[in-house]
Amino acid sequence: MNKSISAAKKLTGALAIPVIFAAVLLILCAANGKSMIANRTGFNYFVLYTAIVMLTTMALSINLNSGRFDFSLGSMAVLASVLSSRISYAMLQGGPGSAAAMLLLGILIGALLGLASGALYVTLRIPPIIASLGVTLIFEGLTFTLTGGKYVMTEVRNASISAFAGNWIWSLLVIAAALFIVIWLFDHTKFGYDYNALKNGQKVAVNTGVREVPNALVCYAICGALMGAVGFLQVARSNSINGGSLNFASISIMFTAFLPMFIGGYIGRYVNEKAGYLLAALCMSMLNSTFAAFSNEVSASAQSIINAVLLVLFLIWLSNERRLKQILRPIRS
Amino acid sequence: MKKYLAMILAMVMVLALAACGSAAPAASEQAPAGDSGKTVKIGVLVADVSGEEALGFANYYRNYIQSNYNVEFSYTEQLADAAAEKAAIEKFAAQGYDAIISFSASDRATQLQTCIDNGLYYAVASGMLDDAQYEQFKTSEYFVGQIGPSMDTEYEAGYAMGKYFADQGAKKIAMYGAFIPNPMHVFRAAGVLAGIGATYGGASEKDAIVGQIFADQGIDLKKVESKDVELAGYFQGFGDTTFDELFACIGAQPDAFLSVGMATTFFTQNLNDAGIAFSDIDSFTSANGEAMADGKLVYLAGKYSSSIGPVFAAVLNAVNGTPVRDDEGNAISLSQDYLVATDADSFQKYAAADQGDSPIFSKEVLDTIIGDVSYADFSAAVAADRG
User: Fold this and answer.
1) Where do the DSSP E strands lie in chain A?
2) Counts of helices then strands in chain A (DSSP H, E)
3) A138–B274: do the CB atoms touch at under 8 Å?
4) Candidates B49, B251, B273; nearest CB to A149
5) Given a cut of 90, is residue A6 above it in pLDDT?
6) Among A296, A306, A281, A294, which Cα is nearest to A38's?
7) What is the pLDDT of residue B230?
8) Residue A249 in this model has a pLDDT that exceeds 80
9) Residue B15 pLDDT > 50, yes or no?
């Protein structure tokens, strides 16, 4: 009996935020004669955006949960997508299989870039935030040099990538695969046990024989691989790569993951944290689709402000949760 | 170990600084032996380095003009604002360049003043100064002139495009405003609204619509009123939310998607995949030809790549001491019209006439307006129908 109550509580806790998001946004759309997802095309891009946010959130959280702030995630995604698009185009000239080739190459190149970023951090032993700023500039510079600051278009405009973006099943498969691999790696392997031990008590873990440096390097490589996949998904969404991102312009890719990371962390109290990131990504995708439906009324800058306000409100809630619950208790009873 | 670390850090710094350089003139191409002793060095200001039109123009200057004249072109990186334009001109001046040709429109008056201050000849190859600016600078010896579609021509191009779709029976359209408040895009967008029979803020006259769009820095859908054609979606610029806005427009299932610039660069694939007929004001490049033959591009008002030949000729004349001026000694101001293709055949007619190695403004044609040439002869050569 207790077990079933606990399961129900978990389910309620996990779904509360997504359901509230969906209810508020759907009512908002209905009241204004809009639809959040107008048709099949809208749904395809909805699932694709969910995949982008979920993978970026996972990549951000892996290092951030261990106290390593990584600004270079966005630049990693862009550079990996430039390199993987060039190589896959050279191999297949945009023919059948281009999407799969670019995705796999993107993951591989992303992992190598992540490893390089991690190697720089563990070798230099400077604060990770500083190391990642340097890496961001290097990756952005390399991207600019490779592309001449131009948009990459020829290499990423083909029927294969269009077919990927045009069917939500592919995005769903990416979500499922990423979720399965990340849960397996972090919850069911020795690497994952070490990671969790280091996350929860670095000194104790190191004293008990956990090797911190290799663990950090693998974390960076996994983040890179996830961002390599994000680079491909971004390409599928926009059919181009902006090669002209300089002076930390790529950081905005990473910032899209902050709100879902905190929401996912909250949902993670009730279910597996990675599943929490999926539900949080779903919330962000609903918000994004609603913004799109209201794009004629809400400007891009207003959207950024709304996102920032939501993030601040959620952080206020998290910081004062106990106090707010105490205040609400008499009202409830 | 410390030595290696220091070396790595130094390399990181050098790479980072190289990456951060703003709008530095890109590496220039080596000019082959020309027909005069000194190589003329021309800096080209660009705000777009990826668009079909921009690439076509760059190919013409770099591949055709540079191999036929003793001239060297250096292109800037993508110039984001007036400060970047000014900095780029000053860098060109410091490197001993002779002239500037501008495709960038953030602040033409400042560009021109900077050129005058640095003794560089200056010409506008895309868009035009407004009337007040032209009056201010037209007698300056360093202002070579402006050759390209005038703002009236831009408005007419937008009007014709809007009217085309209205006449075709479109009842619901979506629109991309490109980079409003760029004046060229403002005038085109105003033309589109007038062309579909819409009023904007109650206004139906060109100047009133243009004035309001400038004031709004975009198009406010609440101010658009149209009896026959509904404007169901609108967006502009290019940033993080652009594709969300595009997908929202696609979701509105419009009969057509009208763009006043750059849609063929950014959205061709999405619009083809969505099966939505679209139009643009761009140029006659091979990629646009494919979009018209096999995709959903159904209307293109365009320039051909060598349409920027005369402005090069005018700059060369000025540098060589034989500037082309009108009877009152003013700088050149000539408008060029757009050509319109609505199917693959008409597109091919224009595209075929302007191939890379045999452009419409070929060396033979340009040679007739290079040297000591009168304003009347120059303008007649520019105006001649070569489409």
Assistant:
1) 151-152, 241-242
2) 15, 2
3) no
4) B49
5) no
6) A294
7) 94
8) yes
9) no
Number of Cβ atoms within 10 Å of the Cβ of B222: 9
Q: HSE of A139 in the Cβ direction (CA atoms, 13 Å)? A: 33
Residue A190: which domain range?
39-288
| CB burial of residue B243 (10 Å; 0-12, 13-18, 19+) | buried
Q: Are residues A48 and A80 in the same domain?
A: yes
**Residue listed under structure tokens 């306000």:** A309
Q: How far is CA A250 from CA A138, A166, A254, B267, in A?
A: 12, 26, 8, 21
Domain span at residue B317 reads: 21-149+305-337+358-383
**Are B159 and B192 within 8 A, CB to CB?**
yes
Overall average pLDDT of the B43-58 stretch:
86
What mean pLDDT is reported for chain A? 90
- Residues in chain A whose beta carbon is closer than 8 A to a beta carbon of chain B? 35, 37-39, 41-42, 45, 123-124, 134, 137-138, 140-142, 144-145, 148-151, 153, 157, 162, 165-166, 237-240, 244, 246-247, 252, 256, 288-289, 291-293, 295-296, 300, 303
Residues A249 and A320 in one domain: no
d(CA A5, CA A198): 33
**Chosen from A35, A235, A291, A295 to mutate, greatest number of chain B CBs within 10 A:** A295
Do A296 and B234 count as a contact with CB atoms less than 8 A apart? yes
Clarify whether residues B229 and B332 are in a common domain. no
**A149 phi, psi to nearest 5 deg:** 80, 5
* A16 inside domain: no
Distance CA A107, CA A176 (A): 16
| CA dist., res. A165 & res. A303, Å (int) | 24
> Rounded to a whole number, what is the distance in angstroms from the first to the last CA of chain B?
67
Percentages (nearest 5) of helix, strand, coil residues in chain B: 45, 20, 35
Q: Mean pLDDT, chain B, as a whole number?
A: 86
Residues B54 and B50: their CA atoms lie apart, in Å, by 7
Contact B353, B173 (CB under 8 A): no
